[in-house]
Design brief:
The complex is a heterodimer of chains A (138) and B (77). Chain A has 138 residues and is α+β, with helices and mostly antiparallel strands. Chain A is built from 3 helices and 9 strands, in the order E-H-E-E-E-H-E-E-E-H-E-E. In chain A, the strands form 2 sheets. In chain A, strands 3, 4, 6, 8 and 9 form a 5-stranded antiparallel β-sheet that branches. Chain A has a 4-stranded mixed β-sheet with strand order 1-5-7-2, sandwiched between helices. In chain A, strand 8 and strand 9 form a beta hairpin. Chain A starts with a strand and ends with a strand. With 77 residues, chain B is α+β, with helices and mostly antiparallel strands. Chain B has one domain: Beta-grasp domain (Ubiquitin-like (UB roll)), CATH 3.10.20. Helix content of chain B is 23%, strand content 25%. Chain B has 2 helices and 5 strands, in the order E-H-E-H-E-E-E. In chain B, strands 2-1-5-3-4 form a 5-stranded mixed β-sheet. In chain B, strand 3 (48-51) and strand 4 form a beta hairpin. Classes of the chains: A alpha+beta (138), B alpha+beta (77). At the A-B interface, strand 4, helix 2, helix 3 and strand 8 of A face helix 1 of B.
Chain lengths: 138, 77
């Protein structure tokens, strides 16, 4: 299992947990970003994600290295799903192993912010009224 | 060289890549100007640029086998 992956498959938390587990660590933080049924209050029917997959995986790995250097955490794994996602399905999964929980909580928050800034992945909202829109947050 | 398009830009172009020939000292900006000439209706503002999967500035130089990606505002997560 790759630690940094862009995939059309359903994301599974357990393999990522296993990737970052370490007997010397007291904390594993798992974060799931989930497809929500609205954006700014407007009803969403389903989501679609597109990636520049080769670059996105490189960027995710780079962010993992930066998080390790900045927060002193252990292993990091990040998987991002692409394609059509139904409401409630997991779009992104982050696992962090760490000696202590504080660093891991801080790192996961930082990683999600960075993912939304620099990783070449795009979300298309398919609205409940049948129209669609690519969302940009930069 | 190849230029890749994603998300709204890909849909506006109705294809995910273009093959173009540029002069030897061409930059990202040169390539963008060419794309704008070929496809005047494409929304080419607010983009970031990557050459061979690395973010680069607008004045970065392109080589014949490079892959240039035009990256609209990202929205993953």
């Amino acid at each position: 299992m790759q630690a940094f992956l862009v995939t059309e498959s359903v994301l599974q938390a357990e393999p990522l947990r296993a990737l970052v587990a370490d007997a010397g660590h007291g904390a594993i933080v798992l974060f799931e970003g989930v497809a929500r049924n609205n954006f700014g209050g407007r009803a969403t029917a389903f989501l679609e994600y597109e990636a520049y997959p080769e670059m996105a995986e490189q960027q995710l790995a780079l962010l993992g290295q930066q998080a390790q250097a900045q927060f002193g955490i252990g292993k990091v794994a990040i998987h991002h799903r692409v394609g059509v996602l139904q409401i409630g399905e997991t779009a992104v999964l982050i696992a962090i192993g760490s000696a202590h929980r504080g660093a891991a909580f801080a790192a996961v928050a930082w990683l999600m912010d960075q993912i939304k800034l620099v990783v070449p992945i795009w979300k298309c909202e398919h609205w409940a009224d049948g129209s669609q829109e690519w969302v940009g947050q930069r | 060289m190849t230029i890749r398009f994603f998300a709204g830009l890909r849909e506006a172009l109705n294809q995910s890549s273009l093959s173009v020939e540029l002069a030897e000292d061409a930059t990202v900006e040169t390539a963008l100007q060419l794309v704008a000439e070929l496809h005047p209706n494409l929304p080419l503002t607010g983009l970031a640029y990557a050459i061979n999967r690395q973010y680069v500035p607008l004045d970065a130089t392109l080589k014949p086998n490079d892959e240039l990606a035009l990256i609209p505002p990202v929205s993953g997560g």
